[in-house]
Fold this protein.
Amino acid sequence: MAVKTLRFAVAGLAVLLTASLAACGGKTDDSTGSALATSGSAGGAVTVFAAASLTESFTTLGKQFESANPGSTVTFNFGGSSALATQINEGAPADVFASASPKNMQVVTDAGTPTTFVKNQLVIAVAKGNPKGITGLADLTKADLKVALCAEAVPCGAAAKTAIEAAGVKVTPVTLEQDVKAALSKVKLGEVDAALVYRTDAKASAADVDAVEFPESAKAINDYPITVLKSAKNAAGGQAFVDYVLSAEGTKVLTEAGFQAP
């Protein structure tokens, strides 16, 4: 009888020790897998500064990322890459920066090690049905046409300048916009007849505009770099988001949006 009592006491002590170890984060053999899985979790708030041309695709990726990582939230700040770079350098809190050109990434003092994840190419956005019969950059020189371009400091503006110079023509815009969405909106609103925008933006607005391809755009393709910032408050979450963008799921969304592989 005494022996049975002792055995029960030892068994009870073992149960208590096991529970204590589990509460303190210790691993038993069958708990190792779940502990390792938890260590790679990407939770918390992630703030992403991204080029305006990434609005639709990154919004989709953000929702997918949150679904794949319960407890995470992704907040975006979309705008012209040059303006975003300035905001980051002035101390705006961000975990990830995705730029529409390496130039704007290079001026960010807190940039980590950027990875080029997509490329983008220009088209001429025109009203549905192309009422002005625009077929190429030469048509944009006509006196009766109103054209919108991005400012040269913005990647889409720098690309437009390169393409126009390659065509050997002179285009005089009636407005210079601070991001590609603003330039595209001028066409949507009927304020201009044409605008040089990214292929992805024209595709996202296919219900409102048509896209005219032109050969000189091949000389002005933009690389898009992405990085976790050195000043990131949630570096782990930021890296998880970058990894998701670079994953097969991310590539699928970006390719369907019209972006090209890097």
The radius of gyration is 26 Å. Residues 1-40 have pLDDT under 50 and may be disordered. The chain has ten helices and ten strands.
